[in-house]
């Protein structure tokens, strides 16, 4: 599995469309909102794409929202359309999260990142400075 080296230039973009004019090696993008075409363009240029999914909150604007059992969906977290998830209940959340983390593969993404309520759970690279 590919993993970026420390210091690899990257850009975290959750907006649609992704601004591919940002000169970085890796784009970390919204895995649900962006289609395969968005992933293919940077890859043709030799860049990598990581799809970001939120594992700490249920987002009403994403297709997996209805899959979350009511008993694990909590109060709003301050972001429009998002509600906290009770991550202590991995026994209930595991299958939904597994589906979400695989959404990137058919699009050609390198891997999925999981911000978990905006907190990274994977190796964090330094910002590209711009």
Structural descriptors:
130 residues; alpha/beta; TIM Barrel; four-stranded parallel β-sheet; three-stranded antiparallel β-sheet; 2 helices; 7 strands; 16% helix; elongated; disordered C terminus; GH
Descriptive report:
This protein is 16% helix and 22% strand. By secondary structure, the protein is an alpha/beta fold. The protein has one domain: Aldolase class I (TIM Barrel). The strands form two sheets. It has a four-stranded parallel sheet with strand order 1-2-3-7. β2, α1 (36-44) and β3 (48-52) form a beta-alpha-beta unit. It is elongated and about 45 Å long. The protein starts with 9 loop residues before the first strand and ends in a 17-residue tail after the last strand. Residues 10-104 form the Glycoside-hydrolase family GH114 TIM-barrel domain. It comes from Actinomadura rubrobrunea. InterPro entries: Aldolase_TIM, GH, GH114_TIM-barrel.
Fold blueprint:
Layout: E1 10-13, E2 26-30, H1 36-44, E3 48-52, E4 57-59, E5 73-76, E6 82-85, H2 90-101, E7 111-113
In short:
Helices cover 16% and strands 22% of the residues.
Binned, the helix content reads 10-25%
- CATH-defined superfamily: Aldolase class I
Low-confidence stretches: 111-130
DSSP strand count: 7
- Total of helices: 2
- CATH fold-level label: TIM Barrel
Provide the CATH architecture: Alpha-Beta Barrel
> SSE string, helix = H, strand = E?
EEHEEEEHE
Rounded to the nearest angstrom, the radius of gyration is: 15 Å
CATH class division: Alpha Beta
Beta-strand percentage?
Answer: 15-25%
Shape: elongated
Derived from helix and strand composition plus strand pairing, the structural class reads: alpha/beta
Largest sheet composition: 4 strands, parallel
Whole-Å distance between the termini? 28 Å
- What's the structural domain tally? 1
Q: Biggest sheet, strands in spatial order?
A: 1-2-3-7
Mean pLDDT comes to 77
